[in-house]
Amino acid sequence: MLRTRSLICRRALVRTYATPASPHALVFLEHREGVIAPGSLSALTAAEQLGGQVSALVVGSSEQVPAVVEKAKKLKGVNSVLHSTSPQYAEPVPEVLSPLFEELLKGNSGFTHVVSATSSSAKSLLPRVSARLDAPTISDITSLEHDASSGSTTFTRPIYAGNAISTVRAPGSIPIKFFTVRGTAFAPAPATAEGAEEKPVDPVEVKDPVTVHLKTTIAKSDRPELGVASRVVSGGRALKNAETFQKMLYPLADALGAAVGASRAAVDAGYADNSLQVGQTGKVVAPELYIAIGISGAIQHLAGMKDSKMIVAINKDPDAPIFQVADVGLVADLYEAVPELTEKLKK
């Protein structure tokens, strides 16, 4: 009797793993009068450190965009420049811009990160877009590291007025990671000879926007811009009034070719415009030389300038906290020391 042996062929089980998408960052480039903002150039440098593709986004009116696109195409690390023109984008507000971002990022857009400078505009725009897409925004980062194997990105950012550094990891399960960049922590992206490709993007018109831009007021000065100046001279409440503030600080700043800054106390007292405020609620600067005149060194002010390469403090109080972070300290009456210093610099 013959027995037949039945053979059962079973399909081999093969376990497959999803491969994390290669980083592709969308960097929002802010600009004014044809000049790309320095903070946006630093955001490009941060995006390049992710190790993948970098696309820049330029928006504005038809008169503004072409010149900015030509500059953006030659920036280091940029692979493509997306641009969208509309009268609504001439002076964009977050409520008008966010639908454009949502359109670019919806579905399988390919973007893994959305990046911008830590500007007042971006601090309103990015959280709005990320909330609509059910994703978090990590603000004011000072370093980043991307893990290609897991798709996660680890950031550091200052907290508690810069007295502590928080390390935040955005896991690969977050499909699009939004973050803003502290400009002083990354070098501005330089221009190169090569040109990236450009891609037009249709604008998303917003009917009856709830917020409308009325006007922009810019304090004009022949001195360097505070946020990017290599030298800064700042004054505090000890300067008594606006007239004394100008009389003491402006000649010294001009002799050094420096920008002028102020503490919050000086701004609140009306000595200087709030555009000159340095600190936690003002501008964050990191110049080669920072001279603090009549500034006690409150923690809120230190948060905005303690990364300066050389800090010089002039204060008649030897116990002023500013001397704890100063590289050079002069305990003297500023009304005597500053004019003497200015005269010596002019010679």
From TrEMBL:
Localization, UniProt: Mitochondrion matrix
Keywords: Electron transport, FAD, Flavoprotein, Mitochondrion, Transit peptide, Transport
Gene Ontology biological-process annotations: fatty acid beta-oxidation using acyl-CoA dehydrogenase
Domain Electron transfer flavoprotein alpha/beta-subunit N-terminal: 25-216
Matching Gene3D superfamilies: HUPs, TPP-binding domain
Annotated SUPFAM superfamilies: Adenine nucleotide alpha hydrolases-like (SSF52402), DHS-like NAD/FAD-binding domain (SSF52467)
Positions that bind FAD: 237, 263-264, 277-281, 294-301, 315
Cofactor binding summary note: Binds 1 FAD per dimer.
Chain segments annotated as transmembrane: none
Cofactor or coenzyme needed: FAD
Pfam families reported in the protein's UniProt record: ETF, ETF_alpha
UniProt-recorded Gene Ontology molecular function terms: electron transfer activity; flavin adenine dinucleotide binding
InterPro entries: DHS-like_NAD/FAD-binding_dom, ETF_a/b_N, ETF_a/FixB, ETF_alpha_N, ETF_asu_C, ETF_asu_C_CS, Rossmann-like_a/b/a_fold
Any one GO CC term of the record: mitochondrial matrix
Keyword Heme: no
Similarity-based family: Belongs to the ETF alpha-subunit/FixB family.
Task performed by this protein: The electron transfer flavoprotein serves as a specific electron acceptor for several dehydrogenases, including five acyl-CoA dehydrogenases, glutaryl-CoA and sarcosine dehydrogenase. It transfers the electrons to the main mitochondrial respiratory chain via ETF-ubiquinone oxidoreductase (ETF dehydrogenase).
Oligomeric form and interacting partners: Heterodimer of an alpha and a beta subunit.
Protein name: Probable electron transfer flavoprotein subunit alpha
